[in-house]
Predict the 3D structure of the following.
Amino acid sequence: MFSVLTRLFHALATMAAMALIAFSLLHLLGDPVENMAGQEVSVEDKERLREAFGLNASVPERFASFVLALVQGDLGRSLQYRRPIADLFAERVPATVELVLVAAIVSIVVGTLLGVWAAAKPDNFLSRLVLTGSVVGVSLPTFATGTLLIYLFAVAVPIFPAFGRGETVDIWGWQTGLLTRSGLMALVLPGATLGLFQLGIVLRLMRAEMLDVLRANFVLFARARGLPERSVVLVHALRSAMLPVVTVAGINLAGLVAYSLITETVFQWPGLGLLFIDAVQFADVPLLAAYMVFVAFVFVTINLAVDLAYRFIDPRIRAGQTMQPG
Amino acid sequence: METAAAASRTPVAAWLRRIAASDLLYNLRQTPTALAAALVMSAIFLGAVFAPWLAPHTPFDPATVSLVNALNPPAWLAGGDWRFVLGTDDQGRDIVSTILYGSRISLFVGVASVALGAFVGIAVGLACGWIGGPLDSAMMRLADIQMSLPDIMLALLFSGIARAALPREYHVDIAVWVLIFAIAASNWPQYARVVRAATLVARDKEYVQAAQVMDVRPWRILVGHVLPNVVSPLLVISTVGLAFAILAEAALSFVGIGMPPTQPTLGALIRIGNNFLFSGEWWISLVPSATLLALALSVNVFGDWLRDALNPKGR
């Protein structure tokens, strides 16, 4: 129980550090009132605005109110769009979530299956080919994969659209592209681009884990009992190798969120990543600061969830023992 | 005795002889994939370093570039021209030459950011391990926070924020340094952790205590007696880090927060080429993509081999 609290405390400390960086970014890079008001506003009015926004308060007081606003979901206003950033994020989140979700399913399911197969049949020609392919996949940058896929399946053989999200349907305020034909078609190439990159990583981690487990004594015993190879691999070994998949899935999800930014640029996919790139080009500092805090929150949540899931699955950690890999 | 005498006469020759006779080089000759990777890597490195002498054209000199030659396909295709073996881009620049010059900046950013990250990481690791206390906990907390975010995300955030923070008119001039800083800032914790752990172990060893008794200055103990313990893991981290740095630079330039199109690196060349993909001029983006893949793949394969070869358990 104590270690769970420690983890929570670390997560909060990380968030506080990110909030501090975002705060200094906002308040060291120019005056928010100058940014908002422009040149026509008189000095007295600016002073009144400053007072209204609490900008004349001391720095710790301002930081406290900044954090309070963040906790209440007020992320500030974008300079570029002249709208609340929370609304912008709410519009963009569905696109990124759907892209990451599709890529996660592709990479984790296919990667795990191929990894297990490559470990079970190490001398098979096809499994060696898959393994070599995974090295290429890991080295091939996301944007190069995207470029290649666009050329092959949108230009040379035009099957899928090369950019955009297609038609979306509104479900309780969530704009989904998963329910229309054009939305699904538009998801294929970006989903494959993002998924393929992570697939190689999942495959290699899963294979290494399976190879370790297959050398364990209990697998030897299962074989000695004359069990069919299929049940040795899929029932006995896989159950034990599934544990690290949780960690792998966490790393995978973190990687997918990070690389979705690049995939979104390749396919002009209207998600959070594209919003960030636009904000950099426009020097939209409030949006950048809010994005930083938001991204940190996402990663802290992923890490925490993986950690807690691990505790839940592995009785050794729950009992307070230190984890020994292998 | 005789070899020692020879070594003192010609240190460089002796050093070369030692390298040629080393286990590592023997191991490399026995591993064909690693050897191939090393050759590809060296070829691209040499091509980049000697680009001004090797490149058939000077692509960024407006005087030598002519729009008459714009959008030529590779030489073996219809409409190709053997003066431009892999074709030209929309401004008539030779693709081979732009890639040679582009790899030059890509590799410079890669090597410089690894060097900077390693330098900062090693310094922090040594200081934290030796001094300990609040400095140690503060720096290691910072490293923990950084490592909870993927490297590429950090590099994107750092570069994006630096660009937003700095006035627009400086962007082109300082783009290289912003990139180097962003990538180095995202990878220093790896070095710091390895070095700190080794320093903590070595601090209590007899040879370090002996040096202290002899009144050797702390920084000399750290550099001369502690650091040599971790040369192999640092070499492996740096090799993998180089592949990451090259890809990160390309990714950042590709999304438009890296090098400007006037000094294109491999990533920026792919970005430029993407605009011509739809009109069928595939070579402008696919040739730099292939070069980048070859570079990243060979560095990764070489790094994998190095990790195994330097691991005493694997011998």
Summary: The mean pLDDT of chain B is 81. The CA atoms of residues 37 and 298 of chain B lie 4 Å apart. Chain B touches chain A through 43 residues (CB under 8 Å).
